[in-house]
Amino acid sequence: MHSIAAVRSSGGAADYFANDNYYTAQESAEAGVWAGEGARALGLEGTVGRDAFEAILNGHLPDGDKVGQVEGRRLGLDLTFSMPKSASILALVSGDRRILDAHMAAVRSTMSQLVEKQLAEGRNYERSRSGEPEKTGNLVYALFAHDTSRALDPQGHIHAVVANLTRDLKGNWKALWNGEIWKNNTTIGQFYHAAFRAQLQKLGYETEATGKHGAFEIKGVPTAVIKAFSTRANEIEAKIAETGATRLATKKQITLYTRDPKLAVEDRAALVEGWKTRAAELGFDGKPLITEAMARAAHQVRPSLRETASQAFAEIAERISAAMRPPSALAVSGPAALFLSAETIKAQHATASAIRHLSEREAAFSPQAILSAALGFQIKGLEGGAVALRIGELVREGHLIPGKSDRLDGHYDLVTTPAALEREQQILDRIDAGAGKGRVFMAPDVAMARLQAAARELGIERAGSDGWQLNAGQLAAGVAVLSGKDRFLNIQGVAGAGKSTLLGALDKVLAAEGVKLVGLAFQNKMVADLRGGGSGAMTAEEMREAGIEAWTIASFVNRYAGPAAQGQGERFETARTALQNTVIITDESSMVSSRDMASLTMIAERLDFAKAPFMGDRQQLSAIEQGKMFAVSQAAGQATVRMDENIRQKGSPLLLAVAGLSNEGHAGLALDLLAAHGRVIEDKADHIAAAADLWLSLAPAERARTAIFTAGRDDRTRINGLVQEGLLKEGTLSGPGVPFSTLQSANATREEMRFASTYRPGQVLEARMDVRELGLRRGEYDVVAIGRDGKVTLEREGKRKVIDPDRIDPQHRFDRIGLYERKDITLHGGESVFWREKDAARDIAKSTYATVVSATGQAVTLELADKRQITLPSSDPMLRRLDLGYALNAHMAQGMTQAQAIEVISSRQRNLATQRTQNVLNTRATDDMRVVTNDLEALKFQLDRTPGNKTSALETVGRLEVDARPANPIEPRQLPELRMSPELKAKLDAVLGPVAAPAVRQLPVPEKSLGLDL
Q: b vs e for 10-20, b when ≥16 Cβ sit within 10 Å of the residue's Cβ?
């Protein structure tokens, strides 16, 4: 395990590290030693003295110079590297001291090769008074080896205490810019785990993966023994169980809040004897395991003829396996692989897999992310240094393209791939080629009149009102579709702009012309909305008859991409005929991936669509997969009409203003405005429970009008459980409850599923179609075992099958395989549920909601929104795809409208609490909303610095600016134009406070101009 903390006190740190229980000189000569290129440059070598250590932390150099002597000076960082518990037990209880030296070697390797060489930075003031980062490649740090946990359990760990010092490229000492070290905490942990795992394997030990980020244990140390010597971990787990926490950030907070001061060691010999006694009581002393490891290590050094032959065969097998892989620019294959070492082949293929894995979700990523992902596959014998070298090779060979750099040192944060760059450019080229090739249905003035007439008809049908009129933005978008000359068009509409009303009017006008309007959407729930099923009182057949024909993008692409790509033949002609008199409009286009956008533009071009507009809001959530082409197309200047009027929230001036602020990135100010109106609830103890209690406190009629929205699925899961518990207590739910085991996606990428380290016993693998290279037939398989040879054992209907995940074709065009975790739920009568997957036979779309009418051990009867009732026997696989439906996460919520909303978001959700997420959550309600959070000020800080933007290959290399970087923090007075009453304007002004006086112009600081710190 690896963690980072700031050093708060130089004197306290010096006392703690100099006097705490570290190994004696006889046990390890490297306990408390200087390290780092910076330390060597200062002449700091050997054992760390208390006074010298304190002086360095205070910025006092050995020659008398002082660095960074400013108020509030940061002292340094404490990077702590903790052994797996099994290693600590074998080293400190069973007596294999070799492990301690191996651990020190792993930490030294991590600090020198990664933290120092790649992450160390200083500030350069040549172009900016506030400074900009500059790579330095040197650190001043000390290593302290300790052997106990806070609860005095055996826990070998090393503190790498990094001083706030580094020497720049001109030889000047200055403060360390530590942002890259903090940001790459996970990568540092991955690198360390891989290095220590390799060291242990050299000592003869076998290891097994135990979790993400490279975590592992030594095989042979029983779980019961590990748990018995994990007092601190047991305390944390008990507190987590008590609070019901599921998110990693919450668990980290519990770890911090439950921490006691480290206990003093009065008698070290007695402590060690106590450990041995406890181990003996558990029937474990580790000696046989150590003896076996030593024998194995001796054979590795002096292998027998038979073992030498075995190693040679393994080497040859690795080469042959690489030679037989599909050709790839990212890794060797074919005959060339026969001339490379096994270590080189491992590094190449791990790096290639990491790039494919990251490319599934992003168009660009950092070299550190590639390194972390490659090591996360936990390939035996693979270390971070080899991967880092391979990344450099791929950049030099052009297989990775560096991002544009504006830095003085030329450092680039991101790299992209030629494939991502080519795909984005191809999409833009296709859209440009569609200029002038769209069908003009009528003159603009005719279109305006027809659209307004259609809107009136729609108002009568949907609301019994003949006063419906399209606003200027809706009308402009409609006219562009009906009268524009281009095949492709972007309709950029803010949340609540009335896109569904526009679609209804367009459908009526086009139908009168004999033209069919087909809607495409990212997920099935949006498809139901496009079909007009929002009322919930219509059958599925009536929805189709009255609404718009609608498909998911996936089903549409699966149907038409093949025939379109052929360009001729019977299938091509049939598809072209079916769609020749059709307008295909894609809704929520911000959520469409580059892969899908490429397919849709190709289909539209080849099959010669009359029109193919893309509609959405580029400020809301982007695709889960790679790409943000809806925003890229607009940034490239391609045809775009705007719908900027928020109709959804026009009845609430407060929500209208909040939506306007959120859409422009003023997330913190939007929260301030809500708080000023009493619409923010802060609960530092348990904001999740507070949100559930808030919903449960509502009257039944209010509950029906109030949705609970969360930033992530873990919070949604916990709220679902708390709401269910509350409904049971009040008697709203009926029956004793029937337990069911359901399936929840493991969120593994296609590339991750090619590695045994991704799989866990108890998971379920779904083959959505036959997978020939694995010999799998379509269906579900239980994961029962993972072998040390990288094979995975599956079971179905009592029959077992062993597969090699590495054989999965990484280039296959379909997502043929899914991996799921089992999740237990209990269903009662009256329960609100929804489906995670579609059921085509019963015409149930993914994300369809239903109410449980009754639940028994034999069957469950449910009523859908269209009033159909269906009964599923307990063996029906669709029951495994159910989940409780009291709360929705942001991706599920996008596109929804609800009268009232409870928004649940935490400042600790570093990847989920973003401006885009908040923009979605803040724009769902029409009448009222409340935000429930753990810490309002911390949440504002998190949101104002986290836009949540996806990457673009074209943007990365500097060809386009898609999402301009906002000021950090954003200037609160640079507000968008907001329509608000004088009362609301006064409240907003009160939140902003008085206008600050103009800053007094300062003369240049000569020390900074010279590259020195005051």
A: beebbebbbeb
Tokens of 814: 């379909």
> Quick one: which H or E segment has residue 293?
helix 287-301
Q: If residue 932 lies in a helix (H) or strand (E), which one and from where to where?
A: strand 925-933
How many Cβ atoms are within 10 Å of 279's Cβ, its own excluded? Answer: 19
Digit-coded pLDDT (tens) for 580-635: 899 999 999 999 999 999 999 999 999 999 999 999 999 998 888 999 999 999 99
**Which of 103-117, 510-524, 700-714 has the weakest average pLDDT?**
510-524
Neighbour-count burial of 304, counting CB atoms closer than 10 A to its CB (0-12 exposed, 13-18 middle, 19+ buried)? exposed
Pairing of strands 488-493, 640-643: parallel
pTM: 0.86
Report the C-alpha gap between 522 and 863 in whole angstroms: 25
Q: Are 111 and 117 in contact (CB under 8 A)?
A: no
CA atoms within 13 A on the CB side of 390: 27
d(CA 199, CA 100): 11
The string of DSSP letters for 132-160 reads EEEE-----EEEEEEEE-TTS-EEEEEEE
Question: Does residue 579 carry a pLDDT above 70?
Answer: yes
Compute the Cα dihedral for 713, 719, 722, 725 and give only its sign: negative
To which residue do tokens 């919070």 refer? 715
DSSP H or E segment with residue 323 = helix 305-323
Q: How far is the C-alpha of 541 from the C-alpha of 525, rounded, in Å? A: 16
pLDDT in tens, 177-207: 999 999 999 999 999 999 999 999 999 999 9
List Cβ neighbours of 355 (8 Å cut-off, separation of 6 or more).
330, 370, 394, 400, 417
Q: Categorize the per-residue pLDDT at 252 as very low, low, confident or very high, splitting at 50, 70 and 90.
A: very low
Taking each helix axis from N to C end, the angle separating 248-257 and 231-243, rounded to the nearest 10 degrees, works out to 120
Whole-angstrom Cα Rg for the chain: 31
Report how far residue 918's alpha carbon sits from residue 620's, in angstroms, rounded to the nearest whole number: 9
Q: What is the DSSP string of 685-710?
A: S-HHHHHHHHHHTS-HHHHHHEEEEE
d(CA 1008, CA 174): 10
Number of Cβ within 10 Å of residue 698's Cβ equals 14
Measure CA of the first residue to CA of the last residue in the chain; give whole Å.
37
Give the tokens for residue 999: 């800053």
Q: To the nearest 10°, the Cα dihedral for 852, 855, 858, 860?
A: 0
Q: Please spell the DSSP secondary structure of 203-218, one letter per residue.
A: TT--EEE-SSTT-EEE
CA distance 900 to 926: 7
Q: Please answer whether residues 925 and 899 qualify as being in contact, where contact means their C-beta atoms are separated by less than 8 angstroms.
A: yes
pLDDT attached to residue 1011: 33
Residue 600 burial (C-beta neighbours within 10 Å; 0-12, 13-18, 19+): buried
SS3 per-residue string spanning 858-889: CEEEEEECCCCEEEEECCCHHHHHEEECCEEE
Query: What pLDDT shows up at residue 1005?
Result: 40
